[in-house]
Amino acid sequence: MSQRSPSLLAAPRIVDLIAQRDLSAVFQPIVDFEDGAILGYEGLIRGPAGTALETPYALFAQAAAEGSVIALERAAAHTCIEAFARLKCECKLFLNFSAGAIRQLADERDDTFTMLRNMGVHAGRIVIELTEQSAIPDVASFLPAISLLRMAGAQFALDDYGTANASMNLWVRLRPDVVKIDRFFIHDIASDPLKFEAVKAMQHFAAASGARLVAEGIEKEADLIVVRDMGIACGQGYFLGKPSAHPPPLVADNAREALRSRHIAVFPEATRAVVSASPSGGMASTKMVVHAPALPRDATNNDVLELFNRLPNLHAVAVVEEDEPVALINRRAFMDRYALPYHRELFGKRPCMLFANESPVVIEKSMTVEDMAKLLANDDQRYLADGFVITEHGQYVGLGTGESLVRAVTEVRIEAARYANPLTFLPGNIPISSHITRLLSHEAGFHACYADLNHFKPFNDQYGYWQGDEVLKFAAHVLADVCDPTRDFLGHVGGDDFLVLFQSEDWHARAQRAIHTFNEGAQRFYGPGDRLAGGIHGEDRRGNPSFYGFVTMAIGCVQVQPQCNDAAYSSEDIASVAALAKRRAKREASGLVMVEFNEGRMVLQGRTTATVD
What we know:
Layout (H helix, E strand, L loop, with lengths): L5 H5 L3 H6 L4 E9 L5 E9 L9 H11 L2 H19 L4 E6 L1 H9 L1 H11 L6 E5 L8 H13 L3 E7 L6 H7 L3 E4 L1 H4 L6 H17 L2 E4 L5 H10 L3 E2 L17 H8 L21 H7 L6 E2 L4 H10 L5 E6 L2 E7 H8 L4 H5 L14 E3 L4 H8 L5 H5 L1 E5 L2 E6 L1 H18 L9 H13 L4 E9 L1 H8 L1 H18 L6 E6 L2 E6 L4 H15 L6 H6 L1 E5 L5 E5 L2 E9 L10 H15 L6 E5 H10 L7
Parallel strand pairs: 2-3, 3-4, 4-5, 5-6, 6-7, 7-8, 9-10, 12-13, 20-21
Antiparallel strand pairs: 1-2, 1-8, 10-11, 13-14, 15-17, 15-20, 16-17, 18-19
Helix pairs in contact: 5-7, 11-12, 13-19, 17-19, 21-22, 22-23, 25-26
């Protein structure tokens, strides 16, 4: 006979707890983000207070040891329904069941729903949650149970989505009305780009399937604001309300204020290098490919000549065997050889492999852009003249040229730079515009602060680009350090220009701190002699000798009131006015200037030829 742990021997039996009605219920609110109302409560079971079996985990561990899990589930549901009926609220009740308990519930549905009616709880207010512990070996045989319960009026939810048992397979086959996202994906979603992307994927699938999403485990305001602004419908967690035997009818005050706040989330995807221009290389390869016929290994040189004569623009021809490239014949090299006396007569009927390059450069269609760029730095430059073969899963797709490779890599890198600056990895122009548009559309008041470095060009000319890059990275670090990552968006426009979209109320103090920190720290990039001199000697734009002080930071700010946020203003308008404020700031000793949005816009309309220093 197997021995039980001392804790299990000391604990009362689950069947005794059920018989003695020694279980109690607590309820945790599920909140609708649109209006902040409580949509329903999840019923949770508790054992005798102050005992080893008070927590659900201990209760179900004991039940598993006794083989009475389903009996405990049914007793827990009955207890929750009784207590819920006494609350006399009209919202929904979410109940947890394993797959086995759901089958039994369906088999005894008449008795179950009669009990509900007697307690005054209509079946339409019940949401049955399939718990994460439930592995379902035969989903097809489980579907009728779900259908029977739905026919009686109950709804069905998939709990803890993203765990091993709550998979997309179940989502597709069970078609839940509600999907509860596991707390793992919600905790710290405000600062975790991968969790953010995972939840976005769930959101797209929910929209396609018609399911309503509930974000579980919301414990911090920042996470709540992110899931709210993503468009997730509902949430649950300690920040919204803790489990209680007598839950309040309204959401917690701090959560209600957060839901009503006008500031919008800074999505974590915008705080890293967002290269949406296909870093996998697929888009670049597609642009490069020349769809050209290939020849088999047993083709003759006359076949090659006929193909080149028929297709005068074809720069090369691939030789394939079972659709896999084995060689490449360059047009110019082949035609130059054939122009020699008697070569056609001597070699025309010989195999084409005679003049072929049997080790051509091969680019797989999925090759990353970075790997393609390495080809450009490779000592073997045959592909620039010969071209190369493009394959997909090893099968011949087409040809590419050295020119097309250079163009494709350049285009992708330029496109990538629009999304993220390659030096600082801060968001580039497209994410900046996107965030301004989000701010405007949500009528969120904010301050757009354009930061620029004074005397940066003379420093760059004197000390070189490598040291100049270090100054730019230092500026990015200083600005990032003064931002609240959940409220303030920092982007790198390019060069020594940065844009901060402050929603923090103490934005002015943050901007002042950035200027002070940068101005002091930037001096360490100068040599000892220049530090003693207070700057460097150089030439102005006309070539005249001039002295330039230390590199300093200037920040021009424009305040955008919520009432300004209508269709008349665009992200370009905001950025342009902030740039005007920056030009003024560069002339101020403090390095910090603010203009009203409407004032700046009028000035821009009346004087559009001002230059950026």
